[in-house]
Specification:
Blueprint: E1 2-8, H1 14-23, E2 27-32, E3 37-42, E4 55-60
Antiparallel strand pairs: 1-3, 1-4, 2-3
C-alpha cells in the first residue's frame, strides 16, 4: 500500500468524499481536522487532478517530515 497526504479544500463533504474514494479502491485512513489534511492508502497512484473538486494537493507520504 502507498500512503498519501492530501490537503482538503474548504467546506468539503467528507462522507461524500469517502464514498467516492472507496469506489476507486482508495481508503481514507485519517482526517486531521485542525490542519485540513487527510491520509489515504491505495495500491494505485492517487493524483490531485483526479480529485480537483476535493483536494488542493496530494503527495506521497515520505519519512522526511521535520518540524
Amino acid at each position: 500500500m502507498i500512503t498519501y497526504l492530501a490537503v482538503l479544500k474548504k467546506d468539503i463533504n467528507l462522507k461524500k468524499l469517502e464514498v467516492l474514494l472507496n469506489s476507486k479502491g482508495i481508503r481514507l485512513v485519517a482526517h486531521y481536522k485542525t490542519i485540513g489534511v487527510v491520509k489515504l492508502e491505495s495500491n494505485r497512484a492517487v493524483s490531485e487532478t483526479e480529485f480537483q473538486e476535493y483536494f488542493i494537493s496530494v503527495e506521497e507520504e515520505k519519512d522526511n517530515l521535520t518540524i
